[in-house]
Amino acid sequence: MDRRIRQIAGLITILLLAVTVSAGWVQGVRSEQISSFEPQGPNGTARNIFRIFQECRWRRGPILSIDGETLADTKRVASGHHCIYQRTYPSGDVASGVVGQWSLYFGKSGLEAAYNSDLVGGPAPAKSIADLFRARPRIGNTVVSTIDTRLQKAAVDALSGRRGGVVAMNPKTGAVLVAASVPSYDPNPLASNDRSTAQDAECKLGVGDELDAKGDLKKGTDGKPIPCVNPQNPLLPVALDAKRPPGSAFKVVTAAAALDSGKFTPDTGTGFGGSYLPPGEIPQNAIHNFGGEICGGSLAEALKVSCNTSFARVAVTIGADQLYSTAAAMGLDQSQGKGSPFIGCDGPSLSDIGTTFGGCLPREITRFDSSGKKSGSEKLMTPAFLGRAGFGQWVVETSPFGMAVVAATVANGGFVPRPRFADRIIDPTGATVRDIRTGIGASAISPQAAGELAQMMRGVVTGGTAAGAFGGFPIPVAGKTGTAQAPSCSPDEVQIFGPGCGQFAHAWFICFAPVQDPTIAVAVLVERGGLLSNATGGQVAAPIARKVLEKYFELYPTAGSAK
Amino acid sequence: MSHPRFREFVLLIGVVVVFVIGVVQLGHWVIVPFFGFLAAFTVMHIAVRAWAPNADPLLLPLAGLLTAIGMLQLAAIDRLQVTAAASWKPLAPLQTGWLAFSAAAFLATVYIFRTGLGPAWRVRYTLALIGIVAMVAPLFPIIGTSINGERLWLRFGPLSFQPAEATKVLLVLFLAAYLSERRELLGLATRRVGPLLLPDVRYLAPLLGIIGLALLIFVRQNDLGSSLLFFVAFMAILWIGSGKAYYPVMGIILFAIGVYIALHAFGHVQVRFEAWLHPYADPQKSGYQILQGQYAMADGGLSGQGLAGPDTQVHLIPFGWTDLILAAVGHTLGLAGVLGVMMCFVVLLTRCFFIALRSRSDLHALAAAGFGIVLGVQAALIAAGVTRVLPLTGVTLPFVSYGGSSLLSNFVILGCLLAISHSENTTHLELEEALE
């Protein structure tokens, strides 16, 4: 019996020692890594609630724009509160979709989250030996964002209050100069250390539940909490998080796939007519041009006049696999999550290497019944679907950010840029801690195909659907318009645009300039920007892109001179 | 050699000094608990001097140190929580009240068993019956209540009590008595079934019956932690008592089957398993406790944020006063504090098993080992859960966590251990005198 008592004692002791080893790992070896690891998952963000109450006692580093404006800063608050500092956003709502916010109560988002460890910084230097053994306050480094507030403001002005988004990036370096959205929001009240101020602001943005004056949950007549509602959802910036059909702007992707497949050159014919019946489809599934228009011709001609039937034929000819692989290579990934066919098609990651660009091109739709169980799935590979996908309709969805990457890829000789929102990290003395360089991404289409496509897009601006908007523009621009139908409106859209919102189309324009040696690629979306007609993208979205380009070449005159 | 009671006194002075350091930091939040603690341990020390003078000198100071660390955590939580939540009732003074009850129960235990566990042996079946009735009681309406979705509480007016804690003590006493009486039979009376030697059904049935019933009820009451504790602890006691490899082997097989069934049949078991393996997958719900526990410990670092430091946020730990109190210790006192608590448990267990090994009576040996196993397995289960060595199961950390029933039963165990130690040491001393 004695032997067995010793054995059991040994076993329990081993378990207790394993606990001490694990505690040593958590508290000693890896404590800093565990403290600052706050990953974002599909079910929410892991927030270190201990850390955030410490962070408000440390001087967090500012976020600057590339043109030197202060986007985020830290101010001392009156003594007596637990926190010593509070975050302020001097530029208000100008770049809030990119900068995000640091909030005592709702955590971090945007650049504040992506570069948190840089902004928190390292421990202050020890002044005494005793300091070495205690937790010291930290002094944060400065993040210099790639956002140019002058351009950003020009883009917001050009949208002139219409719901939409503008993204501009350098196709070679991936630096995002503009990510402007309407509506936007002022992050200052969200970042308040005063709980009720922060909660009020959060509720106005449509997040959380309504609270009464005392800060307790308000109960509705059914005894349940009343969720805060804001149909505009300003916390989801249109530029980065919109999920809208790109319409004809997507023809750039279809054309890229066609040229890259080797089956098409710019001169290859795409048929001519007012309708197209994909092979094997019943007549009801025939594809018609808008307003019975008759168009077609070579691939270049079809792009210039934005002929739907031609691109439906191109998509069916090259096949789904080719179209999907080119679209996916350009960042329009078709990842799918649970519950809804489009969950999982997330907005971009703002950290160094944005690998998900935000776009959706599902191969199949999974249907769910009311209880959330899978009730069936529908393959979207039929020629009728594929034909419509060829001109960006049906289930294709993306954001201005996703389309800016498409334009930048063509501008960059077929190499997909790796977008980044930060340029460098500098320490409080101004010395550079590290430069953020993401390098050149993978090749989506061959340089030859990219060059041909660039010339075709140049044709759209010189003599096609965007010719009106760019008349007299001194620098050669290549682009593509899009006018996307979305006849069914979401409940939020009905609230924003009214019950007839289905008659209005999403206006798109994507472009890059100068054509010979592009230094900027732009994508514009104006949601429900105009009545359905072939010209809407060119009339509504293209002028916004023009204003951004004018401002860009005014600010960076050398960027416009072709080498 | 100095007298054991003198050594106990010196060690208790050391514990009081530790408490005073905490009082200096926490001020008025811990004044009442401090004097309550001082009074309770003075009375207990005097009682041991009177009724169990030859008992082991380490047990009472070790329990004292763990209780003191626990009360300091509660006061540190109170200090922050009173301003954060208006409805918060300070726990440290409540725990002081429970300590008073526990000290009284300790006194009674030491007095009743001062000449050994004979009185318990005589009423062993009654003890088992009371233990089982106590466990079933929360399932009945009126007196039973559920707290946090686990129906394992008895409510008498404003007081709620977790009877499983009492059952823990009673069943160890019963098993020790039962096994000391029949362990020869359990070991020898075997029946050959194929290649296996199985003990005779007559001697095995009551044991398996009790364990099966205990587990069934705990699954019904949704209390995974206690269920696991009972299963592991009683299998270990059974094995020590019988010496048949059959018990641990069957135990492991039954355990594996049980885990398999539990994973598939009970959603909450699966959720806990998931939260253990992938806490970041659902950080706001199922992974919340474990993750915040980890963050709290990581932020404590080596030396901790202090009991009342500027960055101390110990009140934010979910269930930081009960299940996750080890995370609270890690946050306030750092790795040093966690290692201290773990060392206390290792030494406490060593003393329990030492008492068991020295015991001439099987009843005492089995009871001392059994109590050591129950304390050790419980401490290891919750400590391993908090540090992600094992899935998190909700049991209290003995002596440290807030909770009346838990504190009470642990001090009854302590009383039993001191009484056993005293009666065995007395026999040894008498034998030595006779030999001289």
Q: On the 0-100 scale, what is the average pLDDT of chain B?
A: 85
Proportion of beta-strand residues of chain A: 15-25%
Shape of chain A: globular
Spatially, the strands of the biggest sheet of chain B line up as: 1-2-3
Largest sheet geometry of chain B: 3 strands, antiparallel
Residue ranges of chain B: pLDDT <50 for 5 or more in a row? Answer: none
Oligomerization category of the chains in this entry: heterodimer
Which structural class do you get from the secondary structure elements of chain A?
A: alpha+beta
Q: How many domains would you count in the coordinates of chain B? A: 1
What is the count of β-strands of chain B?
5
- So what's the overall shape of chain B? globular
> Taking Cα atoms only, what radius of gyration of chain A do you get, to the nearest Å?
26 Å
Defining key terms:
heterodimer, A: 563 residues, alpha+beta, Beta-lactamase, 27 strands, 32% helix, globular
Structural summary, described in words:
The complex is a heterodimer of chains A (563) and B (436). Chain A is α+β, with helices and mostly antiparallel strands and 563 residues long. Chain A has a domain of 300 residues: Beta-lactamase (3-Layer(aba) Sandwich). Chain A contains 18 helices and 27 strands. In chain A, the strands form 10 sheets. A 6-stranded mixed beta sheet of chain A has the order 5-4-3-10-22-23, with no helix packed on it. A 5-stranded antiparallel beta sheet of chain A has the order 12-11-27-26-25. The termini of chain A are far apart. The relative contact order of chain A is 0.12. Chain B has 436 residues and is mainly alpha-helical. Chain B is 71% helix and 5% strand. In chain B, the strands form 2 sheets. A 3-stranded antiparallel beta sheet of chain B has the order 1-2-3, with no helix packed on it. In chain B, strands 4-5 form a two-stranded antiparallel ribbon. The mean pLDDT of chain B is 85. The chains are: A alpha+beta (563), B mainly alpha (436). At the A-B interface, helix 1, helix 2, strand 2 and helix 3 of A face helix 9, helix 12, helix 13 and helix 14 of B.
